[in-house]
Write a structure and sequence with these properties.
The protein is built from no helices and eleven strands. The protein has strands at 2-7, 10-13, 18-26, 33-39, 46-52, 57-60, 68-73, 78-83, 92-99, 108-109, 113-118. The strands form two sheets. Strands 2, 4, 5, 6, 9, 10 and 11 form a seven-stranded mixed β-sheet that branches. A hairpin with a 4-residue loop joins strand 7 and strand 8 (78-83).
Amino acid sequence: QVRLVESGGGLVQAGGSLRLSCAASGRTFSSYRMGWFRQAPGKPRESVAEIAWSGDNRYYSDSVKGRFTISGDSAKNTLWLQMNALKPEDTAVYYCAAGISTIRRYDYWGQGTQVTVSS
């Protein structure tokens, strides 16, 4: 069984920073891609930032581009998300995910960590 565990969430004032971490444990696997997603109350889950290890291709949603940075260690299936200049609209539960296929599909998900940005 694969487990992804997020950490680093919390309460921060607008303009502040947080760094989320995601660590994999359990059965060994090789991920092709990993990503951060978020879901705010009453809204669908959305992609925030994704990275495909091959070619180091990174994707950011327009709403976080220039403020968030995704990074990680493919060998350890570890992922980070540096979030700067946080806004109240960034408030959500943030999820880490990993995909083992070359197609954009995520096979493993974490339980999520709450990020709350106060105005």
